[in-house]
């Protein structure tokens, strides 16, 4: 492996880990300062559409998490996809590992029961966010490096 390739690999691994560490802080800030705004915006949009009370509840419970996942996908998937040309899924797994490590550290430092970690990762919302980040990273890497993503034996 050439020194330039090693440097590029170390940079992309470092970025994936740094994004994973930053995820918890960004998620906390999003819930603290913006989480209610997203839900309120979705609620107001449903009212404008004239949805009934039951339909509006379903609309808010579906659209608000989707909007949050899209936002997190853009915030974390774009940088991940821009800096990684190959092995996007491997770098995404490093990102998820760093997120998990930060959550373990946060739970241990706060004195909370470790079972909360299991509870957090059983929420569909957690997986929706992680898969949105992966999807955006794959799309970004595909458009950032279109030649490197072609099959090696393509005519």
Question: What secondary-structure arrangement, pairings included, does this model have?
Answer:
Blueprint: H1 3-48, H2 53-83, H3 88-110, H4 115-122, H5 124-144
Note down, in words, how this protein is organized.
The structure is a single chain. The chain is mainly α. It has one domain (3-144). It is built from five helices and no strands. The chain has helices spanning 3-48, 53-83, 88-110, 115-122, 124-144. Helix 2 (53-83) crosses helix 5 (124-144). It starts with a helix and ends in an 11-residue tail after the last helix.
Brief rundown of the structure:
This protein is mainly alpha-helical and 155 residues long.
Q: How far is the N terminus from the C terminus?
A: 27 Å
Helix/strand order: HHHHH
Topology, number of strands: 0
Strand content: under 5%
Class by SSE composition = mainly alpha
**Count of structural domains:** 1
What's the story with the biggest beta sheet?
A: none
Radius of gyration: 19 Å
Assembly category: single chain
Question: Helix fraction?
Answer: over 70%
């Amino acid at each position: 492996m050439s020194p330039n390739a090693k440097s590029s690999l170390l940079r992309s691994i470092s970025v994936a880990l740094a994004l994973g560490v930053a995820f918890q802080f960004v998620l906390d800030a999003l819930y603290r300062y913006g989480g209610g705004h997203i839900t309120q915006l979705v609620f107001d949009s449903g009212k404008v559409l004239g949805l009934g009370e039951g339909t509006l509840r379903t609309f808010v419970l579906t659209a608000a998490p989707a909007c949050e996942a899209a936002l997190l996908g853009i915030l974390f998937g774009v940088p991940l996809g821009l800096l990684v040309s190959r092995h996007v899924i491997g770098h995404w797994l490093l990102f998820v590992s760093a997120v998990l490590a930060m959550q373990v550290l946060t739970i241990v430092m706060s004195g909370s029961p470790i079972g909360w970690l299991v509870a957090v990762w059983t929420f569909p919302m957690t997986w929706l966010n992680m898969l949105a980040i992966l999807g955006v990273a794959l799309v970004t890497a595909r458009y950032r490096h279109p030649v490197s993503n072609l099959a090696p034996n393509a005519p």
